[in-house]
Task: inverse folding
């Protein structure tokens, strides 16, 4: 087993839980993970080279995966002795024929002090000078030592040298090299280039769709069903992850948009786009897999199977342009509660073989604070038990967990937050 560090995305708790579930689903041998601050997850795992890249591509919430090479206790100045030319060229740089591009990123709960930053910059420039005698060298300087995945990719650090990572926790240092970074180009393409975006309902970001799927799926399940499929973001990500898909929506236009988008995905992905979780999407993977239906009444034998799980973002209410007054928001919440309960009721009645449901609940911002859908007890009575992602005491400490243990996802300018749950059928 080797030690790796995962740099977690903007919602680190969701990222962390996504990784835990996927390591189990993908049967990657690993030891108990260990969190350092908000941003870093350390895990010892056994993973073949090719699978590491795939792991990066299927995780919506991981920005970088780093292979740990060294650990020491002391101060940052000790790097001088540790990172000598021989060790770097042998163990850190990806290739050393002619050209080396390198940079440093530091992850630390407490920011580095001026003297440390200054020292590290000097160290980097000295290193560049020393290497220059043998190679054509480029040092990618970032003033705060926070290279983004975009900078790492654009400067080809992983393929042509290294992004050297320093993780600092008090006096302990962990040093490694970045092995993979999130493919931002692919996410932008999936988000922006599809032919039928759905301006009516808010857009689900592809990374979040991936995370919802990855949190909800159990090992062995091969089909994802989205009964509120909208323009099909979640289905698209399901296909890319290598799953079979089933989708429905009450709005026929939405179903047509989904079909257009999936055709586009098949064409784009099977030709030029980089592969995510599978090598090829077959045309049969999208034929007869979507239809118009009301999620509170419909019955679809195809979807009522034990290898099917649900991952969905249903309707989150009318778009808001300002913070609503509490009594307006209550009315919206009541309508949504009815829709959600109708869905769970129908699920219990017509989809008894489906055992797990990953679902987004809306949380409404109001002039009197956050308003949650108050339906958890009723959902439980219907036989769907909320999955406890973390032990209660730990959940309380998490800023990104709702008071009742849902996972919160939001951007600062949004009036409707998302609360993610996974329910398991008893
Ligand atoms: C936020 S969008 C769904 C986004 C979608 N999950 C995705 O991945 O792109 C909400 C969708 O729910 C649909 N909807 C609302 N009520 C419904 C119902 N009773 N049954 C099925 N779909 C419904 C709307 O037509 C809308 O397309």
Result:
């Amino acid at each position: 087993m080797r030690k790796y560090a995962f740099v977690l995305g903007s919602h680190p708790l969701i990222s962390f839980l996504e990784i835990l579930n996927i390591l189990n689903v993908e049967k990657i041998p690993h030891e108990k993970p260990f969190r350092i601050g908000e941003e870093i997850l350390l895990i010892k795992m056994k993973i073949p080279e090719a699978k590491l890249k795939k792991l990066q591509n299927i995780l919506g919430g991981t920005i970088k995966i780093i292979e740990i090479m060294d650990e020491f206790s002391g101060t940052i100045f000790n790097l001088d002795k540790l990172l000598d030319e021989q060790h770097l060229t042998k163990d850190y740089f990806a290739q050393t024929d002619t050209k080396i591009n390198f940079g440093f990123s530091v992850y630390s709960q407490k920011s580095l002090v001026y003297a440390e930053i200054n020292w590290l910059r000097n160290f980097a420039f000295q290193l560049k000078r020393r290497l220059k005698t043998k190679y054509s060298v480029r040092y990618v300087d970032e003033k705060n030592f926070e290279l983004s995945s975009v900078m790492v990719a654009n400067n080809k650090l992983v393929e042509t040298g290294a992004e050297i990572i320093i993780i600092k926790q008090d006096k302990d240092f962990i040093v490694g090299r970045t092995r993979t970074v999130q493919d931002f180009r692919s996410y932008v393409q999936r988000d922006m280039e599809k032919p039928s975006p759905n301006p009516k309902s808010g857009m689900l970001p592809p990374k979040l769709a991936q995370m919802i799927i990855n949190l909800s799926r159990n090992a062995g399940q091969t089909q994802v069903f989205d009964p509120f499929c909208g323009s099909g973001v979640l289905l698209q990500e399901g296909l890319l992850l290598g799953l079979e898909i089933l989708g429905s929506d009450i709005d026929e236009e939405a179903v047509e948009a989904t079909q257009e988008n999936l055709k586009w995905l098949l064409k784009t992905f099977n030709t030029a786009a980089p592969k995510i979780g599978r090598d090829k999407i077959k045309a049969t993977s999208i034929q007869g897999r979507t239809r118009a239906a009301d999620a509170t009444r419909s019955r679809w034998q195809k979807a009522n199977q034990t290898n099917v799980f649900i991952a969905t973002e249903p309707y989150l209410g009318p778009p808001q342009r300002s913070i609503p007054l509490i009594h307006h928001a209550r009315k919206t919440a009541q309508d949504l509660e009815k829709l959600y309960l109708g869905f769970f009721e129908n699920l219990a009645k017509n989809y008894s073989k489906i055992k797990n449901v990953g679902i987004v609940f809306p949380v409404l911002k109001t002039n009197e604070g956050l308003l949650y859908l108050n339906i958890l007890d009723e959902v439980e009575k219907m036989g769907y038990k909320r999955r406890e992602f973390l032990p209660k005491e730990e959940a309380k400490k998490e800023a990104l967990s709702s008071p009742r243990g849902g996972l919160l996802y939001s951007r600062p300018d949004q009036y409707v937050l998302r609360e993610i749950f996974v329910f398991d059928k008893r």
Observations:
- The chain is about 35% helix and 25% strand.
- The first helix runs from residue 12 to 25.
- The mean pLDDT is 94.
